[in-house]
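Box 3.1 A note on notation
Throughout this textbook, protein chains are presented in two layers. The first layer is the amino acid sequence; the second is a token string describing backbone geometry. Keep the layers aligned when reading.
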Amino acid sequence: MAERNWHEGSMLPIAVQAVMCLTSAVAPSRAYADGLAAPSRLGDLDANLIWEALIGGIVVCAFLVAIALWVHSALRRNRRSQLRRNAFVSSAMNNLNQGVVMTDAQRRIIFCNDRYLEIYGLTRSDLRAGMNGRELLELRRKRGVLRASDDEFYDKASSSNGLITELPDGRAILVKYFVLPNGGSVATHLDVSEQRKLSRQLASTKQFLESVLDHVPACVAAKNIEDGCYIFANSAYERFWGLSPDFAVGRNARELFVPGSAASIEAADRAALESSDGQYRNEFEVDRADARRLVASIRIVVRNESGKPEFLLVVFEDITDRQSLSKELESTKKFLELVVDNIPVALIVEQVKDGRYLLANRSAETILNRRREEATGLTASDIFNAKEAKLIIARDEAAIKKRGMITEEHPISTKDGLRLFLTRRATVLNDAGEPQYLIKTHEDVTNRRQTESRMAHMAYHDGLTDLPNRAAFLQALNQMIEACEGTDEEFAVLCVDLDGLKEVNDVFGHALGDKLLVEVAQRLQDAARGGLVARLSGDEFGLIIDGKQPDAGLALAQQLGEVLAPEFHIDGRAVRAGITTGMSIFPHNGPDGAALLANAGAALFRAKQKSRGTISLYQPEMDQQIRDRRVLHQDLSMAIKNGELSLAFQPQGIARNSVAESEIIGFEALARWQHPVRGQVSPADFIPIAEESGLIVEMGEWILREACREAASWPKPLQVAVNLSPAQFMHGDVVGLVHSILIETGLAPGRLELEITEGVLIEDFDRGLALLRRLKALGVRISMDDFGSGYSSLSYLQAFPFDKIKIDRAFIINLGRNPQSAAIVRAVIDLGHGFEMSIIAEGVETIDQLAFLAREGCDGVQGYLLGKPLPIGQYAGLVGRVETMELALKTG
């Protein structure tokens, strides 16, 4: 543009001057032609001469203008070409994969491409005019992308290896600095993060491969073909020859071995090099320090990328004892045949080409309905009826076509009747990749599926009364709400509390109290007229009744009281029990199941305050109960801070036929609260509040720390069990907490057993599972508490290897009276042992229960029969403090 302006400024004035001259010349001549008098000095000039001069001037001017226009056009084309070249160079530099910075002789930055700015997170606006190289380095230093000083930067960047700059985000930048002949400089910045990563991986891979080869039991060595010197020898090779580590590397066979052995080795090497396929196998004798040994070797010629032999790989083993090994192999074969013949699943091997059975173990005789020797050589069509054979052949063909594993369950007729079998079909391919054999296993899973069915039933039913539990009740309640929404239908939720159960337990024992609960549940079901009845807790039942409310609900509550009024005759004793009822109504007293149940519970609380045996409808003012719970929550918070909590310890013993034989193996730590005004507060009252409010996290930390500190002081290394709440897994670092407490108290991790409920996994399965695995890695033991009282999904047992399963007391208290309870306990014991987990039963209160558990193989027991939860001082003898106590008495 500057050239263009200059051109226009120089040529246009010349043209204007020429036109003005011509105009001034023409004007007088025309005047003279019109008869005006011309100046005297022009009077003598010829008019034709003037016109010729005028025309010549015009021609000259036109020529000069044409030259000016041509020069101007040439300059514009030149400038555009220069701009295009500059744009091309700039675009090319900006699209390089490395950053580029150029400076002039005064170190001023004259170019910086986009890649440089991108690498260091800079923008064009960060680069001011006239900035020099050191100022740019200072800018990068302020931005945190340069740690080196200016001198260090220039010294290392100008070296042949360049400077590696580590950026905060982990990237590595290779900087190289070049000084130009004109005094300027060029610096390149290349991201080499991936190359460095690959370099590290290559080094790691090399180290890994060397480590693998070093642990291969066969003797492995490699040698250069040119000079025959060894370049690698693994540990087995060095042990065989009695060489020290790295002694063989750099030496050839003649330098390492006696002449005879060296000659044999070199002859084998030559044979490998001369072989057509680059491999050579042979057996030869070598002289070792202790004796002459026979070795079998294989030599492989390894070629480089151009196909030229580079080094020789040698693998050999000592086969001197081949004869004895052959005998051992034969023995092993017989052993394997014996194992296959006695595995507890049916195994059948079928030949694919003709479908004939080649092998069947003893367990398969149940499937085949004949001796296995008789089945060999037969097909499915020869053994089974046409219908069964057609189905079996179709399944076999599907497995062969898939060339993989096919698993299915289906019933099979056996001599014991129709049984459910888990069948797996796997295809074995030959060397050509074609199906050769079909391996089929059949596992009888009838009992397992029955157990799982019972477990699924247990998840939603009470173990004692077989009524739906709280989870099932809430589920049914929500379903009822969904059905009634948008209609004018009403229904009532009744919370029924059984009056007098505590007295019955105290006077006649828990066994009779449990029988009373079973009888009460039966009467409630009979009186409910098809309504849902559930056991919500120990002595609390829930009912759902539809119809016009509150009339239908009140009528049912009144009827329930009348039904339970007559005496119960249990074990020759007359027992009376009444009920107190609280009731809420949908949709008036709550929009969801939890609210309706909570409000029915609030109404029950008010009814208990009035008088036992009464019926109370929920009223909004009953929210006072909530306020009372808040007060208790505040008191609990202060109790944790003021040290009002204490620990009680309940012993756990080995299941034996008597208490005397049940050796104590540990204790469970349980929290107790002595309120300064209320007195002893039941854990059933303050633990739920702690869990709902989140105080359980703080309280759980205190319990864990105190239990570990106490257990660490016991002379005997007994185990201590501590409950962890799901809230502790959801909030805070429970793994870090357990680790720090173990370090702080000095308790051995193997002595700590953490009891968790299914809630840990139900809330967030993946997170809970990950935390349990990290806890297990600390060395502590993990136990599933209250097994059977919740969902008890078998997938939890499959997903995590629990050390122990704790059977809920609800299944123990009814042993001896309810065959279903005995079957469930037996199934849980078998299930746990199948997973290689130990089993402990809680709530053991009678000798009969203890004897049953011992007979069924239960590992441990806990309950009032062994001991109540008491301060650890009451069990000083069990933890090994008897001598200390006796000494204190003597010196006191």
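The two ends are 112 Å apart (CA to CA). The mean pLDDT is 83.
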